[in-house]
Amino acid sequence: MDELAATMTGFARTLRAAGVAADHERTQNLLKALGHLDVTDPGEVYWAGRLTLCATPDDLPRYDRCFAAYFGGRKAGLARTAVTSVTRHLATREGDGPDEGPDDGTAAPATASRAEILRHRDVARLTEAERAEVHRMLALLRSGRARRRSRRFESAHRGVLDQRRTIRDALRKGEVAKLRHRRHTTRPRPVVLFVDVSGSMAPYAETLLRFAHALVRSEPRATRVYSVGTRLTPITAELRHRDPGTALNEVSRTIPDWSGGTRLGEELKEFLARYSARGAIAVIASDGWERGDPELLGTQMARLARQAYRVIWVNPHKGYEDYQPLTGGMRAALPHLDDLVAGHSLAAYERLSERLAHA
Q1: Residues 6+ apart with CB under 8 A from 130
Q2: How far, rounded to the nearest angstrom, does the alpha carbon of residue 150 sit from its chain's CA centroid?
């Protein structure tokens, strides 16, 4: 019932965005009505929503369009296949077993309600078809980026007096006709992302790399990505390909240490010796299973924290309520982190993207 409530609440939000007066009270009336109806019958779902969520005749055509789009049917009154597929998915709870029907490895188009469910599921527990849907949604992610002041200036109506332009104008016109001003320009705050490709991170590595691809596509000049395992490998150039599949193929050929161990302390030491994270947001995506010396990792994390603007650790296991950072790597890194966030689902990556936009 909770899943049905989430689905219909999302439908009500869609209606409100289209201009239909589907407020909280009307949504609650819909849920009460569905409690007495057969939700596998698309006709009953359609009419229950139409009678409870619509307030005026003008709402009816909008309702029909939203119902068809949200539940995937071409006609609102004939959306049996889409509604049945949604309710069957709701009935198949995570951990109860695989979905019925053959899985040919291709992803069927996701209805809005199904997409909402997939957003919160652990990507390690998805079928190939479901994972493909999540990856398609990740490819559409457009991450904003927090801005920082640069050293460059631009003309402005207010701000610091621009003496040179003011004097040049005065010499050209013979008098000081107008005071000129300037202000600092802004630019995206850079992000340095380290993606753990060791064996323990194998269920999440591809999805994390697709998230990295979305970041690079959104801000190509302000994003650097490295794979970490037993070696530090720059992969930003490979991720600049427009097509995610092509980018991932290039990355797979570039990374030499897939599914090995993790020596993050040594790799951070190499990074800090060769590159810089000054002023950047450093994001480490790893489960913290450090094969190297945890003391070395702690030392390098302290150096990274002093250099970077913020340090965010993304751990897939953080998405579970009973998670405790008990591994040696996590214990060594924890004192030097600004944030420890989940990285197990599409919703978690969306929240991380928002965090990068407002850091």
Answers
A1: 107, 118, 121
A2: 27
Q: 177 is in which domain, residue-wise?
A: 147-188
* SS3 at position 193: strand
Write down the residue that tokens 């049945």 correspond to.
84
Q: Are residues 238 and 316 in the same domain?
A: yes
| Two structure tokens written together for 287 | 């489960």
Rounded to whole angstroms, the Cα distance separating 59 from 285 reads: 46
Do 160 and 233 sit in the same domain of this protein?
A: no
Q: What is the pTM of this model?
A: 0.65
Amino acid identity at 81: T
Whole-angstrom distance, CA of residue 134 vs CA of residue 132: 5
218, 346: one domain: yes
The reply to whether 116 and 259 lie within a common domain is no
Q: Which residues of the chain have pLDDT under 50?
A: 73-110
pLDDT 10s digits, 327-345:
899 999 999 999 999 999 9
Quick one: 324 and 237 in the same domain?
yes
Residues 151 and 174 in one domain: yes
310-315 and 339-342 as β-strands: parallel, antiparallel, unpaired? parallel
**What is the tally of structural domains in the chain?**
3
Which token pair is 270?
A: 């190499």
**Encoded tokens for 140:** 């559409």
Q: Do the Cβ atoms of 119 and 346 come closer than 8 Å?
A: yes
d(CA 340, CA 331): 12
* pLDDT tens-digit readout, 66-75: 888 787 643 3
Is the domain of 325 the same as that of 243? yes
Q: Could you tell me if 247 and 166 lie in one domain?
A: no
